[in-house]
UniProtKB/TrEMBL annotation:
Enzyme Commission identifier(s): 4.2.1.51
Pfam families in alphabetical order: ACT, PDT
Top-rank taxon: Bacteria
Coiled-coil portions: none
Pathway the protein acts in: Amino-acid biosynthesis; L-phenylalanine biosynthesis; phenylpyruvate from prephenate: step 1/1
Site entry (Essential for prephenate dehydratase activity), positions: T175
Catalysed reactions listed for this entry: prephenate + H(+) = 3-phenylpyruvate + CO2 + H2O
CDD domains, alphabetized: ACT_CM-PDT, PBP2_Aa-PDT_like
Designated name of the protein: Prephenate dehydratase
An example Gene Ontology molecular-function term: prephenate dehydratase activity
Residues annotated as domain ACT: 197-274
Keywords: Amino-acid biosynthesis, Aromatic amino acid biosynthesis, Lyase, Phenylalanine biosynthesis
């Protein structure tokens, strides 16, 4: 049996479309799961080699179910990311007219991308969240809801027709997906990488978040995502999910992570992996004083001072 990749299903999700852009899927069995949680649990249980799930969209930010799964439970690691531009189709059973639609369904992350369209065209329709956009389409086929927002490509799979296509409140809306596996050595640096971590503060004090961010800033590291998630320990208790530009084998990133490890209650390393929106090696120069060579020369100088050889 080939190694399998679990993904947020059922068949016909944007997640599946994004996953199929990875060349290695040609030699993997792709297995749909009903939720992000169940796909990730399949990896934790060793049933699947990796899971592919949505993690962020450019309209509303982090997909909280995915972030919360990565923050808690048995540690997992991100190995790849894929960006997909998204527009929605309104899928209905054949013959349904706009005036027939009383209920609409989609994944919660779809709502902010179709809200204005709904207000303009179906202001009285009741929104029902589904486990995924394709699941909403499946539920329309079953007669549970009148319409689903999903990819146009899902229509044929569920015997539906697209009453409207190209629905998107925000131009160029993109969703980011990640391939997640059990912890292992991260892929080698490509010269355009990203590192993901979760940080828990040691204590609450003025400037606590600034102190955490300062570990990146002082080493010239750009941040690409900062999302706070409640720890569950009461109002005001948050951990921080951070994506930072660079690879853990870059000296500045390794030093920043060491700094964070010293000042945080806990740091969860979620991986270093190639950036999807930029070609390998194209990340551009690092700010002055933050290259590997400069870190190595500085460490060497301190060693010489310690030795009395400066
Ligand atoms: O992959 C899907 O179809 C999903 O349901 C997740 C999702 C939700 C909103 C935008 C892109 C992907």
């Amino acid at each position: 049996m080939p190694a399998s990749y679990a993904y947020l299903g059922p068949e016909g999700t944007f997640t599946e479309v994004a996953l199929r852009t990875l060349p290695e899927t040609a030699t993997r069995e792709l297995v749909p799961y009903v939720s992000v949680q169940s796909a990730l649990d399949a990896v934790r249980a060793g049933e699947a080699e990796a899971a592919f799930v949505p993690i962020e969209n450019s309209v509303e930010g982090g997909i909280t179910t995915t972030l919360d799964e990565l923050v808690a439970g048995e540690p997992l690691m991100i190995y790849r990311e894929v960006l997909l531009s998204i527009t929605f189709a309104l899928l209905v059973r054949p013959g349904t007219k706009l005036t027939d639609i009383k209920t609409v369904s989609a994944h919660p992350a779809a709502q902010p991308q179709v809200r204005n369209w709904l207000r303009a065209h179906l202001p009285d329709a009741l929104w029902e969240s589904a486990a995924s956009n394709a699941d909403a389409a499946r539920l329309v086929q079953e007669g549970r809801y009148d319409a689903a927002f999903a990819g146009e490509f899902a229509a044929a799979r569920y015997g539906l027709e697209a009453l409207e296509t190209g629905i998107h409140d925000a131009e160029n809306a993109q969703t980011r997906f990640v391939l997640v596996g059990r912890p292992a050595r991260p892929a080698a640096p490509t010269g355009a990488d990203k590192t993901s971590v979760v940080l828990w503060q040691r204590d609450d004090h003025p400037g606590a978040l600034r102190d955490l961010l300062g570990e990146f800033a002082s080493r010239g590291i750009n941040l690409m995502l900062l999302q706070s998630r409640p720890t569950g320990a009461g109002i005001g208790n948050y951990c921080f999910c951070i994506d930072a530009e660079g690879h853990i084998t870059d000296r500045r990133m390794a030093e920043a992570l060491m700094g964070l490890r010293r000042i945080c209650l806990q740091v969860r390393y979620l991986g270093s992996y190639p950036r999807a929106e930029i070609a390998p090696g194209e990340a551009g120069p690092t700010p002055p004083g933050t290259s590997d060579e400069e870190f190595i020369a500085a460490a060497d100088w301190v060693a010489r001072c310690q030795d009395g050889r400066f």
